[in-house]
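Duplicate of #3305? Posting structure anyway:
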C-alpha cells in the first residue's frame, strides 16, 4: 500500500514508523567511459523520460565533479558506489542540470559527503505546485518508500549559475551554461571543451521528445541551436541511450518541436479550439505522466497556449 505522506513524511523517511510501502528494486547505473576521467552513469534505455535518469562524473587530480544526483537517496548511493569503483578521490562538486525530482532527489547523499552544489537558483517546477510534502508523497509512488529513506531537499545552490560559469578543478575545465528556460526554468548544461563532451540534462531525451511544460518551445529551439554551435563529440541525454551522433539527436528534437509549433499555429489560424487541434494525438496515459503519449499531449497543450499568445499579439514572434 502507499502512505499519503502529507504530515508524516519526515517520520517515515527517518524510519520512525514501520515500513509497509512498496519496495522497488533498481539495478545500479551502468558506467560508460567517454574520455579519460569522464564517465556517463546510464539509467534505463528504451523508456524515454519514464526510465531512470542518466548522470555522470568527471575525475580530476583534486577530486570528483558529479553531474546530477539521480532520483532518490538509494539511487544516489548506487552512483557513489559506481564512482568509488573508479576512484577514491573526494566528491567536491555536484552540478544539477535542473530541479525535477528524478535528477536531484539524491542530492542529499552528496551534500553529506561534503560536496557543494552548483545549480540554477530557480527551483520552480509544476510538480511542486502542491507543496513539498505532496511532491514527496507523489515521488514515493514512483521510487518506493525505502528508496527515499534519509531524504532531505538539497538542491539550493551553493554556487548559483544564471548565465555561464567556469569550474576549474584539478587540471580540468567544466563550463556550466544556462541556455534559458527550455525544458525548465532552471536548466543547466555541462560542457567539457577539451574533451568536447556535453552533459545536456533533459534538454535531450533519447526519443527526441523533450518536455517543455516547465520551459518553452522557443527556449528549447534556442538551446538546441546552442548545442549545435558547440559541436559536441559526445553527449549525455537526461534519459536513455547515448546518441551515436549527437547532431542527429539534436536534429530529431528540433524537428519534433518545430513540427508541433507549426501544427498548433495552423490550428489557431483555422480557428480551431485546443481540443480539436489535439484530436490527431493519442490520448495521454492517465497514470504515466511522462510516457511518450503523455509527453506529446502535454507539450501540445503548452505549445498551443504559446502560439495563442503570439496570435493574439500578447507575445512577440520567436
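Output from current build:
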Amino acid at each position: 500500500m502507499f502512505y499519503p505522506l502529507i504530515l508524516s513524511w519526515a517520520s517515515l523517511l527517518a524510519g520512525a514508523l514501520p515500513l509497509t510501502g512498496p519496495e522497488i528494486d533498481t539495478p545500479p547505473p551502468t558506467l560508460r567511459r567517454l574520455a579519460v576521467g569522464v564517465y556517463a552513469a546510464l539509467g534505463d534505455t528504451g523508456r524515454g523520460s519514464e526510465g531512470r535518469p542518466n548522470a555522470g562524473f568527471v575525475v580530476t587530480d583534486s577530486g570528483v565533479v558529479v553531474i546530477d544526483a539521480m532520483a532518490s537517496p538509494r539511487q544516489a548511493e548506487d552512483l557513489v558506489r559506481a564512482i568509488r569503483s573508479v576512484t577514491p578521490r573526494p566528491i567536491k562538486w555536484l552540478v544539477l542540470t535542473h530541479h525535477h525530482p528524478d535528477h536531484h532527489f539524491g542530492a542529499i547523499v552528496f551534500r553529506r559527503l561534503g560536496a557543494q552544489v552548483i545549480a540554477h537558483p530557480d527551483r520552480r517546477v509544476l510538480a511542486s505546485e502542491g507543496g513539498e510534502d505532496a511532491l514527496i508523497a507523489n515521488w514515493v509512488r514512483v521510487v518506493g518508500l525505502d528508496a527515499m529513506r534519509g531524504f532531505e531537499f538539497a538542491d539550493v545552490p551553493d554556487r548559483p549559475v544564471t548565465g555561464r560559469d567556469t569550474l576549474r578543478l584539478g587540471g580540468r575545465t567544466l563550463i556550466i551554461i544556462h541556455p534559458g528556460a527550455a525544458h525548465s526554468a532552471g536548466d543547466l548544461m555541462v560542457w567539457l571543451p577539451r574533451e568536447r563532451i556535453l552533459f545536456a540534462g533533459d534538454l535531450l531525451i533519447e526519443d527526441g521528445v523533450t518536455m517543455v511544460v516547465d520551459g518553452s518551445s522557443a527556449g528549447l529551439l534556442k538551446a538546441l541551436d546552442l548545442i549545435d554551435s558547440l559541436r559536441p563529440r559526445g553527449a549525455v541525454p537526461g534519459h536513455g541511450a547515448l546518441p551515436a551522433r549527437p547532431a542527429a539527436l539534436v536534429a530529431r528534437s528540433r524537428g519534433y518541436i518545430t513540427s508541433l509549433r507549426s501544427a498548433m499555429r495552423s490550428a489557431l489560424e483555422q480557428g480551431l479550439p485546443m481540443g480539436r487541434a489535439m484530436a490527431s494525438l493519442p490520448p495521454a496515459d492517465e497514470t504515466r505522466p511522462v510516457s511518450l503519449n503523455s509527453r506529446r499531449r502535454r507539450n501540445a497543450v503548452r505549445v498551443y497556449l504559446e502560439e495563442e499568445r503570439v496570435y493574439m499579439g500578447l507575445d512577440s514572434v520567436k
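Confirmed duplicate; merging threads. The chain has nine helices and twelve strands. The radius of gyration is 20 Å.
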